[in-house]
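#lab-general

N.A. 3:47 PM
ok so I finally got the sequence cleaned up, no stray characters, all 381 residues accounted for. can someone with queue access submit it? mine expired

B.Y. 3:52 PM
send it over

N.A. 3:53 PM
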Amino acid sequence: MNQSKRDARVELLRIFGILMILGYHNMQVDWVLEGTYRFSIDYVTGFFSDCVPMFFMILGFYLFRNTSYQKLLVKTIKKIIFPTLLLFAAYFYLYDWIINGQSLKESIAHPLDDYVYIVRNLLMLRSPYTYTNHTWYLFLYVAVIALFPVMKSFVDYLDQDVRREKIFLVSTLALFAVNDFFDNEFLSFSFITTGGVVPALIMVIWGHILYRHRDLFIRKGFALLGQVGFLLANLVRTFIVYHRIAPDGTWHTSIKAWYSCFGLICPTLLIILAFNLINNEKDSKINDAICKIASINLPMYLLHQICLDYLTASGFRQISAGFAYSHFSEGIANFAVVAIDTFVSFILTFLLVFAVLGVKKLISYIIPVRHKTCNNQKSGQ
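B.Y. 4:20 PM
back already:
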């Protein structure tokens, strides 16, 4: 495969990531089981719990190839911050019209207090509304990029000696495990930017080290190792949750959070799996298709939540649940309804992204034409 092309193995991981996000967010809606513990359901949720750590590791694959901090900041503003702000604006003015059935005029009209609330939350590096809470990852992403110079110096130090990299991997895994043992009361990691930047930085550096030494785990039999290891790791995590159930049937543990030690272990196993599933040296239609689908993973991440909300508001979830529970036993139906909703939300988000990109392409086509026509008119005068 030409080196200028994307690495299809990495792109496959991006597709894994967006499917995990859709699955996890669908489960949050479909499985309302407060005060009830079900081992099988908790085990399956583990499959989708590590999407954010995996995306941070993928970021580490290429991040430290950058040599210009200024260019990196400009790229981040253009590719991440600007699209996210556009998303916030679209949600702010159009969400109630699309989802809640308000008139367009009512949806667009907002009091001054709403604008103040948005600005205050953005300055605090938080999502401005509850229905864009999924963007917390992007706030952490920007924080990681802002700290790039410090992180780059540390990574350059680690790269000088493999032993330093091994010490870093083992010590940070142990640190996360100790924090898990104390239910996150030791380090108090969180989803907000100030509480999440440290584990995010660690995961980015893990990604850098793993990708730098990727040839070590591209071997015969390692695809099976990655797959079986991932299933077993999630089984261990589920048993830990099971043994921490309170007498009243509720449970609380940070072991399922993105910043747990399993947030390092499980994505690593998925990386091993993906890098042994695909031969990146061969040009193939499958590799090309993987790269094309993965190229829109950011807009899919940005837009997926409104598609999930639409499935709820339109009554589709009730239809899929009715179908699943009328055709299957309860245990199978629990998983069938999530599989159906995840598949449909993927297709719906995919189509929405292509519609948005189509409008963007149309605008970029029209504006230069008008500009050229204007120049031609001036030159003719």
